[in-house]
Amino acid sequence: MTFWILFVSGLILALILLFFWNQKLNKSIQITRRSIELDFLPPAFDGYRILQVSDLHGNDPYDLIDKSKAFKPDLIACTGDIFDGVRNAETTFRVLKELAQIAPVYFVSGNHEYYAGNWPERTARLRKMGIHLLENECTQIWKDSQSIELCGVDDPDLNYRWLYARRLQQHHQNIAKLPSRKDKVRILLSHRADLFEQSLEADAHLILSGHIHGGHWRILNKGILTPYNGDRFVFFPKYDAGLFRIGNCQMFVSRGLGDQMRIPRLLNPPELVWITLRRKPENNTSNKPDWKSNHRLACRPD
């Protein structure tokens, strides 16, 4: 009996300590620094800095702006669920305004952007603030007379009651609206990391995504669960966090910054991503790549 009393008491104490430690983790932003090499990146963009902000969910982390400024980014990519939906909209507008004073902000929607039901009004206000919304479209990013292509697709969750198959169909429709890639590097902002394979149709070299929240709970550096997608949860998601590759396409998945989800984060501190683009040394030649042959096809699904 004494053994079991000690065992249960120790277990309860351990759970209490884990709870308070986890609460502390969830209040501090972890910075992830990542250099990503891209084929045929223009020399002017070697060392180009992209700050990825994802899944903020209406939060206002006290050190977000300071840590964003410290990176001195050339561009800020907001990859969805920056708004919570219904709550804290004014807080989110203020955070975005402060981010826009650091570097140009490019924004794509996540599922939570739609939940309040007044997303068109919010997009109009964001544009007035100088936020660049990418709604199934592309733009050119220039530096020293050289350019890359930055594209974005809307989140497919236009109706919260849709089943997963309908959302998948909408994602294909959104991707199909993008123009054909020009003979240059293409970066795609797309909220849904779980749709990496379907997003290959965008013919991008790098995709920046979120949505999975790192799997909510992380055990042995692996996410446990995806957010609810209409009719399903997925355990141990394939694309939970970090860098993934299919052919010549890479995708970086942010664990996100929010802590207001129904399922709380566990051993999964909020993440701010510092990405530095690098030009592969073997591609530092004067030869122009054959964009219309294997290089293009390698970025498409089989």
Using the CA coordinates, give the radius of gyration. 20 Å
Q: Assign the structural class, choosing from mainly alpha, mainly beta, alpha/beta, alpha+beta, or little secondary structure.
A: alpha/beta
The H-and-E topology, N to C, reads as HEEHEHEHHEEEHEHEEEEEEH
- Beta strand count: 14
Low-confidence stretches: 283-298
Explain this structure.
- It is a single chain.
- This protein has eight helices and 14 strands.
- It has 302 residues and is of the alpha/beta class.
- A six-stranded mixed sheet has the order 1-14-2-3-4-5, covered by helices on one side. A six-stranded mixed sheet has the order 6-7-8-9-13-12. Strands 10-11 form a two-stranded antiparallel ribbon.
- Strand 8 (186-192), helix 7 and strand 9 (206-210) form a beta-alpha-beta unit.
Give the helices and strands, then pairings.
Blueprint: H1 2-26, E1 30-38, E2 49-53, H2 64-71, E3 75-79, H3 89-100, E4 105-108, H4 111-114, H5 119-128, E5 132-133, E6 137-143, E7 146-152, H6 164-176, E8 186-192, H7 196-199, E9 206-210, E10 218-219, E11 222-223, E12 242-246, E13 249-253, E14 271-279, H8 294-297
